[in-house]
């Protein structure tokens, strides 16, 4: 299966604009989650995330959209960021079969913001990244320290006399 992007819908209420997209993705929810909830994932298809504290009320700075807070966080399911210039950006993942998922996207903003065309291009890039053999960039975990050889002295703990 290849991904697809349904026609976006747009609503305007006074000065508030709301964009909705339904994006079918060729990977399981668990595989897509890092694309919407990690700096590396967002940077691969959307915009650089200079700051992203992965928790409710954590700080977030999305380079092209501004700084703000994480306003919804349900691991593997919902990531929502509310940023000063970009408004509210919500990624809601659902199962779409055994090996697929569905992204329900909402962007609510005041005044001028990213257009339907801008988001469609981003979602096309997301699908390309998810379908590529390389996939999403993954943060390399620090390598654990090697245990000392038997009989080798251990470093003292802070405040411990040697």
Can you walk me through this structure?
The protein is of the alpha+beta class. Helix content is 20%, strand content 36%. Strands 1, 2, 3, 4, 5, 6, 7, 8 and 9 form a nine-stranded antiparallel sheet that branches. Strand 7 and strand 8 form a beta hairpin. The longest helix is centred in the last third of the chain and has 16 residues. The chain is globular. About 4% of the residues have low confidence.
How would you concisely characterize the structure shown here?
The protein has 162 residues and is α+β, with helices and mostly antiparallel strands. The protein is 20% helix and 36% strand.
Output the keywords.
single chain; 162 residues; nine-stranded antiparallel β-sheet; 20% helix
């Amino acid at each position: 299966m290849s991904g697809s992007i349904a026609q976006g819908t747009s609503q305007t209420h006074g000065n508030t604009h709301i964009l909705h997209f339904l994006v079918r993705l060729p990977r399981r929810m668990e595989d897509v989650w890092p694309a919407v909830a990690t700096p590396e994932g967002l940077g691969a298809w959307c915009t650089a995330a200079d700051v992203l504290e992965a928790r409710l009320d954590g700080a977030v700075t999305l380079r092209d959209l501004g700084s703000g807070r994480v306003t919804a966080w349900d691991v593997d399911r919902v990531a929502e960021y509310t940023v000063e210039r970009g408004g509210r950006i919500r990624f809601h993942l659902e199962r779409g079969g055994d090996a697929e998922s569905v992204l329900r996207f909402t962007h609510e903003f005041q005044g001028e913001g990213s257009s339907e065309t801008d988001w469609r291009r981003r979602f096309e890039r997301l699908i390309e990244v998810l379908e590529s053999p390389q996939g999403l960039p993954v943060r390399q975990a620090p390598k654990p320290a090697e245990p000392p050889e038997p009989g080798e002295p251990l470093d003292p703990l802070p405040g411990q006399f040697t």
